[in-house]
Every structure is written in structure tokens, then in C-alpha cells.
Amino acid sequence: HCGLSPPDPSPTCLETPMTRHAIITGASRGIGRAIALGLAGRGYDLALTDIAAQEGTLAQTAGEVRALGR
After folding, report:
1. pTM for the full model?
2. Which among 1, 19, 26, 67 has most CB atoms closer than 10 A?
3. Which of 46, 7, 42 is nearest to 28 (CA)?
């Protein structure tokens, strides 16, 4: 009930931290990479994906996301 719109203003909802999640496609480079790093910097938990040919660069992006604590 705390994630409903409009938010429930009850004390339990205000005291409960919300974890935000996102799935980023095309996360190895370009806009996808920028979005992944931006959301990681804002505390989102992420799932990153890209095409098999980008496996190496995706691993680099994943390392940068981990370095941000996500």
C-alpha cells in the first residue's frame, strides 16, 4: 500500500525506505549506459542487459554500477 499513487501518508509508509528497481536494455554503451550509471547513482537496484556481442562492455558497465554501491 505504500507504493500506491497517491502515496499513503501513514507513519509506517513514511518510515519505510523504498527500494527502486529498473531493467536497463542496451546498457553497455551510449544512452543505456548513461541511464544505468545515472540510476545507480540515485540508489536504484539494476538489471543490465545487452546483445551478446556487447558482453565485454556490458561487464565494464556492470563494474561501474557496482563501484557506485549498486
Report:
1. 0.73
2. 26
3. 46
Q: Which helix (H) or strand (E) holds 12?
A: helix 11-15
How far is it, in rounded angstroms, from Cα 52 to Cα 28? 11
pLDDT tens-digit readout, 8-66? 555 555 555 678 999 999 999 999 999 999 999 999 999 999 999 999 999 999 999 99
- In angstroms, the CA 62 to CA 28 distance is 8
How does DSSP classify residue 69? T
Which amino acid appears at position 14 of this protein?
L
* 3-class SS letters over 21-66: EEEEECCCCHHHHHHHHHHHHCCCEEEEECCHHHHHHHHHHHHHHH
